Amino acid sequence: MRVIISAGGTGGHIYPALAIINKIKEKEPNSEFLYIGTHNRMESKIVPSMNIKYVGLEIYGFSKTHIFRDIKNIYLIQKATKKCQKIMKEFKPDIVIGAGGYVTYPVIKSAHKLSIKTFIHEQNSIPGKSNIALSKYASLVGVSFKNSEKFFPAAKKVIYTGNPCGAKALSAPSISKTTFGFKSSDKLIIIVAGSLGSSAFNEKFKAFLSTVEKEKYKVLYVTGEKYYDDFIKDATFPQNVKVVPYVENLSSVMKEAYFVISRAGASTISELLALKIPSILVPSPYVANNHQYYNALDLESMHVSMLIEEKNLNLSTIQIAINELFYDEKKYNSMKEALEKVNEVPADTIIYNKIKELIDE
């Protein structure tokens, strides 16, 4: 299989793209890939380091404040589109894939103009502007949340695939609770404020941690490296609480968790669903289109998670939610049963199969 794939700007776009590449490599080891990203954002460093052929485009997102840059960007998009068409004529891809970010616009549009099959994937419940604009050109649109389908009325076909990042969590080796000083028999709650941490999140949970000494569960609290020193300063935590700044390969530790409390980013959610772990989600209100709230709302509607908005987060709501999920065995088991029904086939496999069908049509 010859594949051109594009995604840019954030790990939330880049890592699903890489997961799709890995699944295609697994199924068809002789496949050839060309990754098209921006010339200056994180994918321009990550992707080449993985020995994947890379082409960078000079292109920027539109804004309401940089008018002159926006005018220049119209020219850059036209230039990038011509460059993409030239690349595709030379590379001759069987499929062109977009996994989000403004850099995908000239890539998918060029493929459509050249009558090459295209697949775009949306990670969040509220789609990005590029994917909405591109959906009318795509042969197929894949979504990570079932409630996202309604945002693509112009698409030829939309399917629920889930997020392919979950596959990495499944294959990651488990890290024992004993690594953090707990017993293997302990019921562990992992609380993490996103990959970078959050001062608001930490502030609310710090008071809670001092109240759990007599509870039957243990807590691993991940502050985020930026906030660790302030979090532990002048603080004393019970013996059943372990506070750390960061955990590498968190999904490996999550496999040992009874349940997880976290933000509601697309990658985190993909791991929770893949690993079948109940959760309490506290969406970040500081993200575009408040998409984490809608991510969490989708999981709540599937009965696999509980949702607390940050504005409602306090000692009382934290205690009520945790006690309800931990001590109500019926509720916990019901959530586990619902998780078993979600994505029985891994997202990366679904995407691979659908791509093959597109190519063979």
Notes on the structure:
It is a single chain. By secondary structure, the chain is of the alpha/beta class. 41% of the residues lie in helices and 16% in strands. A seven-stranded parallel sheet has the order 3-2-1-4-5-6-7, sandwiched between helices. Helix 1 packs across helix 14 and helix 3 packs across helix 4. The two termini are 14 Å apart. The model has no long low-confidence stretch (mean pLDDT 93).
Total strands: 13
- Major pleated sheet: 7 strands, parallel
Biggest sheet strand order reads 3-2-1-4-5-6-7
Shape, principal axes of CA atoms: elongated
Radius of gyration based on Cα positions: 22 Å
Compressed to H and E, one letter per element, the order equals: EHEHEHEHEHEEHEHEHEHEHEHEHHH
Distance between the termini: 14 Å
What's the pLDDT, averaged over the residues?
93
Considering DSSP H and I runs of 4 or more, what fraction of the residues is helical? 40-55%
Strand residue content: 15-25%
Return residue spans where pLDDT drops below 50 for at least 5 consecutive residues: none
Helical stretch count? 14
What is the SS-derived class? alpha/beta
